[in-house]
């Protein structure tokens, strides 16, 4: 059947020829087209036969109505897309509103701390690094957190949870039960003619016995073996013989430089050991009270055999030999000359590191350690003197990061680590006390930077529960750097040391500073201003309390 294209092209595209009135008429029978008079010069075929290409192009070119099917298809896809976006928006809005309601909108903390373990035998077959992995959650990318207002909310929460509560001091019998061997070795009285705490101990070995054969410091460190080789050679020359028995002089330190790391303790140690009446342990930082007596050599290596107290005392044998020389001199025998040589120990972890307690002592104080390092030191040496060197905790943390970070150090990386550590600390404070979080081994190992080391006042208050205030000298690195002579005079006076000649004093005070920042770390420049502002806000309440305890506003560090 043929139809005239001139009249049919004006019709709707749906079933075009069946509804062609002009071509088919009202009775749908073929009739002449009123336009072409029946000539049908441009025929349009229907049924299954093809149309002429020219006719098809002409229809599609002249009449937009033929595109309507295509546009309907596109409109359907567009509607589906819009509908999908609406659904996605609603889901996201629901998630955001729910997170805000539960306080999760602001960077949810990646760690959640459950109950503290009360089983000290937990670590019998598990290392510290294993414990860290046990508590380690999935890592969270927080590199986008660089705005001060967001992290300030975390700091505000931390500040609201700060409470300085006086700890309960354990009695002596409780300490004896925890460390019976230590109490069997160290006496409760020392030689009266020695300024330094010393005593004579019977030696039951013979000339073929190596007194340092089992010393853990010598076994685990090659660089200490030279020292012990020398001690072996001179050991028998320094034994005291009395009534067919051999005695060796044992000594503990008279004073301790107890902290803090990256606060100038190495420089103080190097200067102080130049004084003619001062001796130190064979190793600058034995870390015995905080780590070695628990069997910790390196935290990442887990636990080893515990170092007995005898191994610690061996470190003072060189100094003990010199003290013994004074005590056995003719002047001492005839005129009762007093030994004025004193021994020091400079482990910068002594003030703050009580992380191992959870694995050895029962937890009966809701996450707080029942015994601290100072409890045991005071039990043996109630008259010990303590020196603490501090610096602005903000700068201390950055220096600590530069010193201990192994790779990929940058100010941006430091900022992100600070942000993550603040979140972890906040999360702990939501469930536990300030002291429990500060001494929490799991938290301290998880934090990328050691925020807790800068909470000076928390540690100082705990030391003041067992030692009198006049037994503790607190210095600032900033003052020491600007006036070394003044700082050293304060230390000499505190330790009751004899005055020095001008030459001796110049040797001590004019020597270059020790353990300064490495050149490659200096090239990184200062921390980001935003990071510094965040840390100043975090440490401010702790510095305020510290200044109140010491009655010195310099410990506010407002000018740094």
TrEMBL record:
What Pfam families does the record tag this protein with?
Answer: Sulfotransfer_1 (PF00685)
List the keywords (alphabetical).
Membrane, Transferase, Transmembrane, Transmembrane helix
> GO molecular-function annotation terms?
N-acetylgalactosamine 4-sulfate 6-O-sulfotransferase activity
Class of enzymatic activity (EC top level): transferase
GO BP, one annotated term: hexose biosynthetic process
Does the keyword Membrane belong to this entry? yes
Q: For this UniProt entry, which segments traverse the membrane?
A: 78-97
EC id: 2.8.2.-
Report the residue ranges that make up the Sulfotransferase domain in this protein: 253-517
Q: Where is this region: Disordered?
A: 508-527
UniProt record similarity statement:
Belongs to the sulfotransferase 1 family.
Q: What is this protein called?
A: Sulfotransferase
């Amino acid at each position: 059947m043929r139809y005239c294209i001139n009249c049919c092209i004006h019709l709707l595209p749906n079933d075009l020829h069946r509804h062609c009135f002009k071509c088919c008429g009202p009775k749908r029978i073929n009739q002449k087209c009123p336009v072409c008079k029946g000539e049908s010069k441009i025929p349009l075929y229907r049924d299954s036969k093809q149309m002429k290409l020219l006719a098809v192009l002409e229809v599609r070119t002249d009449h937009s109505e033929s595109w309507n099917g295509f546009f309907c298809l596109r409109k359907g896809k567009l509607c589906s897309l819009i509908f999908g976006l609406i659904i996605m928006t609603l889901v996201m809005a629901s998630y955001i509103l729910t997170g805000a309601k539960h306080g999760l909108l602001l960077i949810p903390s990646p760690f959640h701390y459950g109950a503290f373990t009360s089983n000290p035998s937990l670590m019998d077959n598990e290392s510290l690094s294993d414990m860290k992995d046990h508590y380690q959650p999935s890592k969270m990318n927080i590199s986008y957190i660089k705005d001060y207002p967001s992290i300030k909310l975390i700091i505000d929460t931390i500040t609201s949870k700060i409470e300085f509560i006086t700890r309960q001091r354990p009695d002596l019998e409780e300490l004896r039960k925890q460390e019976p061997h230590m109490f069997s070795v160290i006496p409760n009285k020392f030689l009266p003619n020695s300024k330094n705490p010393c005593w004579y101990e019977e030696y039951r070995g013979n000339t073929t016995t190596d007194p340092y054969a089992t010393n853990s410091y010598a076994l685990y460190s090659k660089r200490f073996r030279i020292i012990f080789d020398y001690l072996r050679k001179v050991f028998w020359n320094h034994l005291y013989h009395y009534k067919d028995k051999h005695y060796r002089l044992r000594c503990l330190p008279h004073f301790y430089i107890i902290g803090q790391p990256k606060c100038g303790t190495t420089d103080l140690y190097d200067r102080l050991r130049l004084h003619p009446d001062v001796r130190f342990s064979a190793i600058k930082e034995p870390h015995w009270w905080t780590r070695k007596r628990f069997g910790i050599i390196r935290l990442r290596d887990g636990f080893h055999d515990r170092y007995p107290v005898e191994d610690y005392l061996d470190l003072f044998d060189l100094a003990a030999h010199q003290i013994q020389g004074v005590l056995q001199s003719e002047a001492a025998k005839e005129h009762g000359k007093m030994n004025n040589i004193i021994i020091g120990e400079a482990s910068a972890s002594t003030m703050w590191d009580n992380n191992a307690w959870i694995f050895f002592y029962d937890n009966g104080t809701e996450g707080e350690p029942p015994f601290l390092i100072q409890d045991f030191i005071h039990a043996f040496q109630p008259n010990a003197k303590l020196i603490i060197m501090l610096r602005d905790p903000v700068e201390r943390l950055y220096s600590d990061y530069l010193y201990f970070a192994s790779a990929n150090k940058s100010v941006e990386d430091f900022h992100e680590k600070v942000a993550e550590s603040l979140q972890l600390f906040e999360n702990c404070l939501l469930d536990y006390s300030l002291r429990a979080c500060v001494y929490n081994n799991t938290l301290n190992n998880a934090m990328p930077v050691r925020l807790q080391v800068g909470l000076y006042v928390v540690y100082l208050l705990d030391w003041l529960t067992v030692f009198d205030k006049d037994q503790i000298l607190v210095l600032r690195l900033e003052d020491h750097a600007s006036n070394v002579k003044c700082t050293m005079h304060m230390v000499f006076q505190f330790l009751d040391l004899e005055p020095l000649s001008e030459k001796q004093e110049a040797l001590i005070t004019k020597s270059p500073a020790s353990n300064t920042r490495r050149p490659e770390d200096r090239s990184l420049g200062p921390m980001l201003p935003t990071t510094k502002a965040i840390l100043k806000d975090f440490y401010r309440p702790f510095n305020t309390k510290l200044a109140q305890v010491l009655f010195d506003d310099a410990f506010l560090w407002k000018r740094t």
